[in-house]
Amino acid sequence: MQPNQKQQPTPQDTFLSAKGAYRVGDYTEAAKYSGLLRAHFPDHPPVLAIHGMILSRLGLDLPALPDLARAADLTEDALVNGDDQNPARPQIIDQLFQVCVAWCNSLVRTGEPGEGIEVIDRALVYDPERHDAIAAKAEALAAMGDHSGAQKLINDHLSNAFDRIRLTISLGRIELLGEGKPDSGVIAAVRDQTDRVGLNASDLMDALRVLGDLEDRAGDYDNAFSAYRRAANLRRGRFDPEAHAQLTNTLIQNWTADEMAKLVKSDADGSPMVLLLGAPCSGVEELAALLDQAGTVSTVGPIDAMMLVAKKVFGARSGVIRPVVFSPKGLRGKQFTDGAGVYGSSLMPFVRPGANRAIDTNEMNLWLAGIAALILPGIKIVFCRRDPRDSALDCYTADLPGLHPYAKDLVHAGSYIADCNRMMDHWTRVLADERIGCEVHEVQYADLLADPIACAQKVVGMIGGEGADSITKIHRSLRKSPDPKHYKSKMHAVDELFDEISAGA
């Protein structure tokens, strides 16, 4: 081996990297490793398990379900037909529980809590006191409307629990499903858990965000913000707002309609494809879940297909958070044709059979929309818009899966959202140019919040889909998020930022 040549990681190394990233809450990084393993070992239970669990944690529930179901079946088969004296049996049981908990959580989010309970009951046969499974079952019961049964289930196990964190988090989430002020005892229980030493980052972040939401609902806004701040501080990565603003300026300057019109586009038909884009917490996730109910529309989630195209075909260089293509100059027609092929082969396995519209919700596509327009002429783009102050606070306080280093700081979150809005303004002007030929649409978060079903049905018509009448279930995360007016002293710098932007517009 040459002195400077890097040794390729083994499958075991890659698996450990996926588990390590998952354990510390870096789900996007974990997904990269697990995706590599999934491509090479499609029937290996531990690989299916970690891949499905990561997709579930990222909110990609529909793609996660097949892997979780297959992993559970294979793992349970190993327990039923295996040797009871196998020293690895406890690890196999632990894998079954982790898979079933993730499977149940995804089923609850996709509107099938009854099936989620059946999944958990399969695992509880091996340990009726397993607390993460009890917590998942309780949340499934609450999703079916049985709040008292859910609370009783948790309380029955709390008294004997050595590790109460998952049970307490679920108790807090169930309390938040009710109306009015939350019970002070529940708030105290969650607060006690957040003060424990030795919690892993993922559990602590979940507990702190639940505590923040409970305190917010109770009207104790200082305590709520303290919890949100602690959770935000646990996010990974660094963010330089000035560097990101400069990156945005560069893209806006370089990606003009005149420059793009000089290029020979791919001959692919992009009309069946839809990019659903927006700043963080602007309604993309909620709208995507609604649209996916339409019979001919398939939401594939925030997969990295366009990012793969940018890196593999166009040699995307490092940006502030993800690689970007800084300019269309020098790009060639063959690259656009190749890019269409790479994107299609990456996306199509996630598209539901019978769908004639596929929706990609990766927020990083906002920085690659110019590439998308050139490799897929006629692609449809839907921008979700929301008051930037609301988005900034929600971004700071919400559980955003993946790498969101800007959300560690409230002002940085506001700066990032301002850059997102500037990119949407730019693409709206450029991509709708008749020489480029994209369909560009816009959805207001206020409209989505006021009447989610009607709003989603309208979007189905915009993108040329069918089956809008099938949209009946409202994504449960469509909720009233923390109100900026309750955090006026905390929002002062953010208000100044957006006031300055408005004055300069």
Short characterization:
This protein is mainly alpha-helical.
Order of helices and strands: HHHHHHHHHHHHHHEHEHHEHEHHEHHH
Whole-number total of structural domains: 2
Radius of gyration: 23 Å
Q: What is the 3D form?
A: globular
Contiguous low-pLDDT stretches (5 residues minimum) are 1-5
Verbal overview:
This protein is mainly alpha-helical and 505 residues long. It folds into 2 domains: 11-233, Tetratricopeptide repeat domain (Serine Threonine Protein Phosphatase 5, Tetratricopeptide repeat, Alpha Horseshoe); 241-504, Rossmann fold, CATH 3.40.50. It is 58% helix and 5% strand. It contains 23 helices and 5 strands. It has helices at residues 11-23, 27-40, 45-57, 61-81, 89-109, 113-124, 131-143, 147-158, 165-176, 184-194, 201-218, 221-233, 241-254, 257-261, 284-291, 305-312, 333-347, 369-375, 388-397, 410-431, 445-450, 452-462, 492-504, and strands spanning 273-278, 297-301, 357-360, 380-385, 439-444. A 5-stranded parallel β-sheet has the order 2-3-1-4-5, sandwiched between helices. Helix 7 runs parallel beside helix 9 (165-176) and helix 20 runs parallel beside helix 23. The longest helix has 22 residues, at 410-431. It starts with 10 loop residues before the first helix and ends with a helix. Residues 1-5 have low confidence and may be disordered.
Topology:
Elements: H1 11-23, H2 27-40, H3 45-57, H4 61-81, H5 89-109, H6 113-124, H7 131-143, H8 147-158, H9 165-176, H10 184-194, H11 201-218, H12 221-233, H13 241-254, H14 257-261, E1 273-278, H15 284-291, E2 297-301, H16 305-312, H17 333-347, E3 357-360, H18 369-375, E4 380-385, H19 388-397, H20 410-431, E5 439-444, H21 445-450, H22 452-462, H23 492-504
Parallel strand pairs: 1-3, 1-4, 2-3, 4-5
Helix pairs in contact: 1-2, 2-3, 3-4, 3-5, 4-5, 5-6, 5-7, 6-7, 7-8, 7-9, 8-9, 9-10, 9-11, 10-11, 11-12, 13-20, 16-17, 19-20, 20-23
